[in-house]
């Protein structure tokens, strides 16, 4: 086959992180000189509860493993089966990471050369896009007695190995094996198998450094590929090299689609303030400008807080700014273009006599009595219209449905007036949310995310109007 001695393995686990999750089942097929010489499998008591979603997917329950041996009782058997063997698995670093971490928990080392059948399939069948085990089973007609159970999946891998060994010339196979045994680049401080446990669906990831401090928050339409790209020496810039050097732990959050990832990333950036992301300004300081015609001189534009307010109640406000500097920059540009008075706008203190802009013929002269406040402000209000928040395109609340075809993940986002009223994962929870939605609360980052998203073809196609929702 590939080598004189191979050990095909699959593990089932309580989750995807080999540092905190545990093995619940293990199966090994030992092959010597192309012949299957031993098959072995065992349930494993993980010592922690198995999450409900994992029990539903795999079929291994807490009751099934209650009387099973702990991994520490199986280490001698595992070492014997892997003696002088290549460790062969699908997405192999995931399984290898779990075995290695289980040994580390009892103070022992485990090392073996590793061959990944995902990488082998990619190298030998580059014309195909999918190389997951389900794709291989369908493409090559493999027999799997029990999908998502350790022995069933291991037997399918053994069949796949036999097919490729019989199909390809030895030199082609050898080159593919070299690729399949190449270890991925990873930070020195990151445990084995962590990156391989990250799913391929959309979502958000968080890098943590020493003392568990957040280093970086990012998102990707394919989490694993995006995270792996940070550690690729071919694409690494100085910033990514610094991030890679500091990473000690990776967390991830799977979403049903890109909008969910954008919203979650924004929330985590504000919450965690990671060191290597551009720091967001204080969201509490967001304000709009209200026109006050009762003021005889200036300023006639007053700041009024927007963050957390109902955006419909702020319809009389112009713009959304994070700082006085940002607002003043916009007003100075308007003053220059439309000969408005910086004193009346509030970007310059009011003093006796005309403003400096009038002396330079950039102000029409409301400060010098050459035009009335009403004439000045008529011009001002026209240009201020360009600062208004965009009108909400619907008469009330809408639902954005996101569904990921490969992960099966589903999410419903209830939106109204550029606010996210809630996100749920099933229709019964959605009905309850629609019946009793929370109050609208404006957030500038969310407004900008929704503004961009709902203008895309995918965004427009995902919207459905809520009929009979409370206004």
Cα-atom Rg, whole angstroms? Answer: 30 Å
Sheet of most strands: 5 strands, mixed
Give the count of helical stretches. Answer: 18
What number is the mean pLDDT?
Answer: 91
The portion of residues forming beta strands comes to 15-25%
Q: Sum up the overall morphology in one term.
A: elongated
> Roughly what percent helix?
25-40%
Category by helix and strand content: alpha+beta
| Strand element count | 15
Task: Set out the fold topology.
Blueprint: E1 5-13, E2 23-32, E3 35-43, H1 52-58, H2 62-65, H3 75-82, E4 86-89, H4 92-105, E5 114-116, H5 117-124, H6 133-140, H7 150-167, H8 170-180, E6 203-208, E7 214-220, H9 223-229, H10 238-246, E8 249-254, H11 258-272, E9 287-291, E10 301-305, E11 317-321, H12 324-338, H13 342-345, H14 356-359, H15 373-384, E12 398-403, E13 410-416, E14 419-424, H16 427-435, H17 444-453, H18 457-461, E15 463-465
Parallel strand pairs: 1-4, 4-5
Antiparallel strand pairs: 1-2, 2-3, 6-7, 6-8, 9-10, 9-11, 12-13, 12-15, 13-14
Helix pairs in contact: 5-8, 6-7, 11-17
Report on the architecture of this protein.
Helices cover 36% and strands 19% of the residues. The chain has 471 residues and is of the alpha+beta class. The strands form four sheets. A five-stranded mixed β-sheet has the order 3-2-1-4-5, sandwiched between helices. A four-stranded antiparallel β-sheet has the order 14-13-12-15, with helices on both faces. Helix 4 links the parallel strand 4 (86-89) and strand 5 (114-116). Helix 5 packs across helix 8 (170-180), helix 6 (133-140) packs across helix 7 and helix 11 (258-272) runs antiparallel to helix 17. The longest helix has 18 residues, at 150-167. The mean pLDDT is 91.
